[in-house]
Amino acid sequence: MDTFNLPMDLVQENDNVHIIGYQSSANLVKNKITMNTNLFSFLLAGVKTTFYAEKSARIDPSQFILLSCGNCMMSEKNAPENGIYKSILFFFDNKILSDFFIKYPGPPQVHVEQAMSIAEQPFVTFRLDPFLQNFLHSLELMLATGKPISRAMRVLKFEELMLYMLDKYPQQVMSLRTANKDEHDFRQAVEAHIENNITVDELAFLCNMSTSTFKRRFAKIYGVAPSKWYLQKRMEIAATLLLNNREKPSDVYHKVGYENHSSFTQSFKQVFGLTPSEYQQQKLTVLQ
Predict the structure, then answer these.
(1) Kind and range of the H or E element at 226?
(2) 130 and 223 housed in the same domain
């Protein structure tokens, strides 16, 4: 019995959303799988059986399955007509899932109690309908070109799929949010204050955490210290205002959480190597 780490064993690119075409001519029986992200598995030919500790499921090409991260076992049986097992695997991690729920909060009529009953399940199976068949065909067409699918397109297709699923299967989709509610709530609190003049200590207080716990949690989710992350994000917003809106630096600093122009100028120069005025003049000259 082999053991696989997914999606790492199938991709070289280090990213949090992947679309992979998978094909095999070998019948595989109960391979051990460590699922490091969540997965939509669309079957094109053959039969897939998935085993978790609590339950198992068997799907054919008329169905697809949403698997949560964790350990499971999988069996793959080839289609009898051509001896091929074929599927499209759509991997996505909790960060991109949390980003989705921040961008699209979801229908208010779905209650947390209803979602929790589904969140306890390690996977959910669905039947393909005409829309999802067309969606799956669009993935096949992109993969058939042999060219890498851009990250922007992968994120777009993920949002397309999730928005449709959220509309048709709101309880099941919102259960993903509920299952990852702590991280979602943390990220929502962090990102709601990008443009506010708020300290890390104050944000930790609002999140009902000690400052040290907040910093550890932040670093685990974002991979960087909160002060560095906020600095980068605020200066990116400032740069957009300077270039796209052509606002004066003196009108920008308070919009990104600074109380005076001089400290804003110092922070901007720390990130871009130029003062806001120099950056604006240089970039706008190039664009002309």
Answers:
(1) helix 226-243
(2) no
CA distance 25 to 23: 7
Convert 252-282 to b/e letters by CB count within 10 Å (16 or more is b). Answer: bbeebbbeeeeebbebbeebbeeebeebbee
Tokens of 150: 């851009």
Nearest to 66 by CA among 84, 46, 29, 92: 92
Tokens read off for 284: 């706008």
CA distance 66 to 155: 17
Please check whether residues 37 and 77 belong to one and the same domain: yes
Note whether residue 186 is domain-resident: no
Which of 155, 179, 203 corresponds to the end of one domain?
A: 179
The answer to whether the CB of 65 falls within 8 A of the CB of 35 is: no
Q: How far is CA 94 from CA 97, 103, 111, 178, 246, in A?
A: 5, 14, 21, 12, 36
In a domain, residue 187? The reply is: no
Note down the domain range covering 53: 3-179
Q: Count the domains in the chain.
A: 2
- Measured CA to CA, the distance from residue 264 to residue 234 in angstroms comes to 10
Taking the model in full, what pTM does it have?
A: 0.66
Report how far residue 145's alpha carbon sits from residue 161's, in angstroms, rounded to the nearest whole number: 21
The residues, any chain, with a CB within 8 Å of residue 187's CB and separated by 6 or more, are: 95, 98, 99, 102, 221
Q: Tell me what the pLDDT averaged over the chain comes to.
A: 86
DSSP symbol at 72? E
In this structure, is residue 238 part of a structural domain? yes
Cα separation, 201 vs 212, in Å, equals 9
Specify the range with the lowest mean pLDDT, choosing from 107-121, 145-159, 175-189, 241-255: 107-121
Is 67 strand, coil or helix? Answer: strand
